[in-house]
Design a protein that fits this description.
Chain A has 132 residues and is mainly α. In chain A, 62% of the residues lie in helices and 11% in strands. Chains A and B meet through helix 2, helix 3 and helix 6 of A and helix 2, helix 3 and helix 6 of B. Chain A binds a DNA duplex (30 and 30 nucleotides) through helix 5.
DNA sequence: ATGATATGCAACATGTAGGTTGCATAACAT
DNA sequence: ATGTTATGCAACCTACATGTTGCATATCAT
């Protein structure tokens, strides 16, 4: 959809100016995404907007404290952030870091695109040398 | 770069035909990607082509057994596969599953794009409205 | 002031990821 | 036949992620 359009929110420095995202930077993002509860939190935040811990805990299947930890996990990966609002703590997506994460994903996907095509070409020429 | 071009290998059904990838399916992929050693393995496979366990172990910084485990971890996420070739075990990327993984990433990225724009619009109009 | 609500903090249990070492086995080279 | 190379298998260790419970504290509503 909006895949190759330059984003207005962030000027996307690292991926464009020649500096490809390194594995080291991508790892914590993937780690953060590697949990069903956290993915659900991200989806809720991306569809319902900013929410408090308590609201995010409802229907989550785990305790509020567990949700709190997941939120901080997402936070240290730079995917979400929070602000205090009265006695509530409101969490929302961090657009800036989200853009960076998106570039990681794009980068990985592009790598795989290239690899897939190399693989295709490879298979076409190598098919018979391996096995009967 | 090759982001919006329809892929020849797989006709990208899920992003088009309505079946969006669920979190449950994406989680193991992200888990597999959430490790520096494994990302390096994927990168090597995507640039150097199919390699044996021993070759993948060289310069990896950990033991061969550790690499073996990482490879099987990537394998159970469907990102790589292996075949026996003499006394060697050759690992390579699994193009089919890779395409599915790529769609996950695209889906997530698209979600975030939309959320980012909603956020932008939200901030522009909501700056003063605190609570419902 | 008082009770209800939202969160913070800390201790604890448990599973498992990631790594190691040691030895066994299979396939190759000579 | 024999040594070398590539891998398999298993036991073991350690750190940490995930979840819990219990209690304390801050904020709100009345």
């Amino acid at each position: 959809m909006s895949r190759s359009r330059p984003h207005p929110l962030t000027s996307s420095p690292s991926a464009r100016g020649g500096t490809a995202p390194r594995e080291r930077d991508a790892v914590p993002v993937f780690v953060a995404l590697g949990d069903a509860t956290r993915l659900r939190l991200l989806r809720r935040l991306s569809t319902e907007g900013p929410l408090s811990i308590t609201r995010l805990s409802h229907g989550a299947g785990v305790t509020r404290q567990a949700i709190t930890r997941h939120l901080y996990a997402l936070g240290s990966a730079g995917l979400v952030r929070h602000r205090k609002l009265g006695r509530e703590q409101i969490w929302d997506l961090d657009a800036k870091r989200l853009e960076i994460a998106r570039q990681y994903l794009d980068h990985v996907a592009a790598q795989w695109d290239a690899a897939a095509e190399r693989l295709k070409a490879f298979v076409e020429t190598q098919e018979e040398t391996t096995e009967p």
